[in-house]
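note to self: dont lose this again. the chain is below, predicted strucutre after it. 161 aa total, dont forget to put it in the shared folder this time
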Amino acid sequence: MRRPGEMREVAFDATAPVQWGEGLVSVAAGEPIEVDTRLESVHEGILVTAEAETAYEGVCGRCLTDIRQPLKVEFQELFAYPGEEAADLEVQDDHVDLETEVRDAIVLSLPFQPVCRPDCPGLDPETGDRRDGSAGAAPREALDPRWAALAELQTDADENA
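---
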């Protein structure tokens, strides 16, 4: 501390204390998180460069099947030495508290519309069943019941031709 140019690398494991995230996917409480950090002393404070790895779980936004995917995030923050000017992040008793920064980086990296696979076909709008994703099957257009009588006339005209 207060020796500009010095650096330490620290790796540690932690767990999510509560569920992180509120959308279709989230990091469950108790999920393990691996954090690799590099702490560099600079004139203004301690520069923290970190990489966190965990996994999120939830449901696919297209077909509603359960998914679990790994998540890797990187962030960098400057923790200022206590002084006359107020700072958002400060070094306290020669320590930096990374919980808020790790949580924020992970939650902001969670996908808004998660999918089980990039080419997920989703659900059939008529039956609600999961589509199989075969390329040959064209989606059927929904027939408005008000046009049903005309559809019968078209079928009769096709048979007579």
